[in-house]
Specification:
Elements (H helix, E strand, L loop, with lengths): L18 H8 L7 H10 L2 H16 L3 E5 L1 E5 L7 E2 L18 H13 L4 E5 L8 H14 L4 E4 L2 H11 L6 H15 L3 E2 L9 H7 E2 L4 H13 L3 E8 L5 H22 L6 H4 L13 E8 L16 H5 L5 H5 L23 H14 L5 E3 L2 H4 L1 H6 L7 E4 L18 H10 L3 E5 L5 E4 L41
Parallel strand pairs: 1-11, 1-12, 2-4, 4-5, 6-8, 8-9, 9-10
Antiparallel strand pairs: 3-7, 12-13
Helix pairs in contact: 1-3, 2-10, 2-14, 3-14, 6-7, 6-9, 7-9, 9-10, 10-14
Bound molecules: iron/sulfur cluster (SF4).
Length: 483
């Protein structure tokens, strides 16, 4: 199990780029304030961010190994009651390509994942009002029975909140009801929660882009309820649309705060060896917390949000107007849409530089979160590889299929050999990990997946099940010798 650090001292009077402060943050002796995080995100040189985020990453994860997992992303339904304007995946239910996978199709996908050494499935879907609690419980039981060694990483907080609305479980408060549902799902085999639906927490942004999706407090409290049950989760952020830079920092700060709370209230789950090895002692269900943070830029294709005018428009230039997201965004999340009438009407996409900057700041801000994941799925394999020098310690999963982000234009598909090659060529030893970030095996020998490939010019990633016409556009990726 990874080591988690206690809350660290802040030094609010120091400039964010003070080398002493950054050195202390990198070595795990100081914590950035939101103001300092904002200053870094908006003003620090890119190479400074990379240098200190990499130093922090090396402090936590060492100099040698960078990891990946073999799992499969299964989107069990695309029918959804929400109306997120950044989403090209959802269907109302009566379209020709609306779907809910049958159990047997799901089992087949998991079998294919297990056949290539997979240890986990990531299962998320739309918020589908037609599915009952029994449908989910039977599915989880069926998966656990057939694949007892595969962790079921499933159901993001917005799905959990909708489960409460759909199933009407007992409980005095919303979170009591979420806990009731979570206990049922956990008993049926659900292992951990993904951080889907995080987007941007700030209410002004969230209500504009994610109609019908739970708010920040509900999202964070669902995760806290899961942590109270000893479950591990991850956190996410999708940026590069209408939000301001301060919104990104506010988002990271909220996650750090709730991670402190989870660790203070439930511990880290590290049970003394003497107790852990004694079968007569019932182990406490404590220690749930966030294990990783993943952030990625919004992908605009085929989405309503992607059709907004890009900032700056001619009128913005003529009138010398700032990006409206930055006018509204506040580090405490208190910004409101009436602070700029153009808010929500301008798009500011994030490219590779913004991605690397944001990820580096996340590594430095989130001192109590063990893993920062590279987002090669949206940024492409080579920027994903560079991300290993900007604070990321994990390359995520091999990608056999993906339906949500790819609906919005991203179509990368990598296998284990390619992932290992990307990690090795970045200067590290590739290692397969499990769902708790413990290493299963390192790849040093000649039988490593990448070293077995004789001709990279002919290597193609094999794509498995393909859903929807959009995937016909998907290009297979070739990694050349120079990569
Ligand atoms: S992002 Fe998720 S919740 Fe939002 S519309 Fe798409 S499928 Fe539904």
């Amino acid at each position: 199990m990874p080591t988690i650090y206690s809350p660290l001292p802040e030094h609010p009077n120091l400039d964010a780029t003070d080398p002493g402060l950054l050195g202390a943050v990198a070595s795990g002796h100081a914590r950035l304030t939101p103001e300092q995080g904002f200053e870094l995100l908006t003003n620090a040189p890119l190479h400074t961010l990379g240098r200190y985020a990499d130093a922090r990453c090396r402090e936590l994860h060492g100099h040698h190994i960078r990891s990946y997992i073999i799992d499969r992303n299964i989107n069990y339904t695309n029918i959804c009651t929400a109306k997120c304007i950044f989403c090209a995946f959802k269907r109302k239910g009566d379209e020709h390509d609306a779907y809910t996978l049958e159990y047997e199709e799901l089992y087949q996908k998991i079998q294919e994942c297990a056949d290539i050494g997979g240890t986990q499935i990531l299962m998320q879907g739309g918020m589908n009002p037609n599915l009952t609690l029994d449908w989910y419980l039977n599915l989880l039981n069926g998966i656990r029975e057939r694949f007892p060694h595969v962790n079921i990483h499933a159901f993001s907080p917005p799905e959990l909140i909708e489960f409460v609305n759909f199933f009407d479980p007992p409980g005095a408060t919303l979170i009591d009801k979420v806990r009731w549902v979570l206990i049922k799902l956990k008993e049926a085999g659900m292992g951990s929660l993904p951080g889907g639906g995080g987007e941007i927490f700030a209410p002004a942004v969230r209500t504009k882009i994610g109609m019908g999706k739970c708010d920040m407090n509900a999202w964070l409290e669902v995760m806290y309820a899961a942590h109270s049950l000893g479950m591990f989760t991850s956190a996410s952020m999708m940026y590069g649309h209408i939000e301001g830079y301060a919104d990104r920092v506010h988002h990271m700060h909220a996650i750090r705060h709730w991670q402190d709370k989870a660790i203070a209230d439930f511990g880290t789950g590290e049970i003394p060896t003497q107790i852990a090895s004694d079968p007569t002692i019932k182990k406490p269900e404590t220690g749930g917390h966030y294990l990783g943070f993943h952030s990625w830029p919004f992908q605009p294709d085929h989405t309503s949000l992607g059709r907004l005018p890009h900032y700056p428009t001619e009128s913005d230039l003529e009138n010398n107007l700032p990006f409206p997201g930055d006018v509204v965004a506040q580090l405490d999340g208190s910004g409101t849409k009436d602070m700029d009438e153009r808010f929500g009407r301008r798009l500011r996409l994030a490219g590779a530089t913004q991605y690397l900057r944001t990820q580096a700041v996340s590594r430095l801000m989130l001192d109590n979160i063990y893993t920062i994941g590279s987002s090669w799925v949206t940024m492409g394999p080579h920027i994903g590889q560079v991300a290993l020098q900007f604070g990321a310690n994990d390359m995520g999963s091999v990608m056999m299929e993906e339906n949500v982000v790819s609906s919005a234009g991203t179509t990368y598909c990598l296998d284990e050999a390619v992932l290992c090659r990307l990690i090795r060529n970045a200067g590290y030893l590739p290692a397969q990990r499990d769902s708790k970030y413990d290493v299963i095996k390192t790849h040093a020998g000649a039988d490593s997946p990448d070293l077995l490939v004789k001709d990279w010019s002919a290597h193609r990633t094999k794509r498995l099940h393909i859903e929807g016409e959009k995937q016909e556009l998907a290009a297979q990726l070739t990694i050349g010798d120079s990569d």
